[in-house]
Amino acid sequence: DIQMTQSPSSVSASVGDRVTITCRASQGISSWLAWYQQKPGKAPKLLIYAASSLQSGVPSRFSGSGSGTDFTLTISSLQPEDFATYYCQQANSFPLTFGQGTKVEIK
Amino acid sequence: EVQLVETGGGLIQPGGSLRLSCAASGFTVSSNYMSWVRQAPGKGLEWVSVIYSGGSTYYADSVKGRFTISRDNSKNTLYLQMNSLRAEDTAVYYCASLTYRKFDYWGQGTLVTVSS
User: Fold this and answer.
1) CB-CB neighbours of A80 under 10 Å
2) How confident is the model at residue A85, as a pLDDT?
3) Would you call the peptide bond into A44 cis, given omega within 30 degrees of 0 as the criterion?
């Protein structure tokens, strides 16, 4: 199975900050990576797919990059509604696996 | 508008069985790859199973042999039959569509609690 490791596990940031979350795969997954945002008590929401493609309706302050084993999710200017937990997910092979999550908290 | 609505969760004793349903609207279950993803309380996301539009099915090792994914095309509904339930199966279960290897639509989830 492909293991996905996110860092950091949590980050404290202020509105307007630039936030970067990294995700590392235990083996190469090309660009088969997605990012999700989850708020408490809600289902995850797709933000980015194919490592860098923005899902329709997602604000452009979210961006993704990377290929192979190392990926990043960047929020260019953090907004109040962005405080949530973020997960990466590899889509290269079954079983599909997720990172452990990164909680973005208010500083 | 696509809507996925899960039902069927609840409290069940270890060793028991439960069937989850996911009713779709604005969306055709049989034409899409459909999955179940679960989340234990306070934990991360875990993929459980997928059914392809052609009918092939795949499972996580943790549920293989105990869970069965299926669909009823006439009802436009996805199912997850869960047998031999264990405490570690306690989670919110989400159904989600898997399009080009990304989970693009999700239901609101249904909580399954396995406890005596």
Assistant:
1) 7
2) 98
3) no
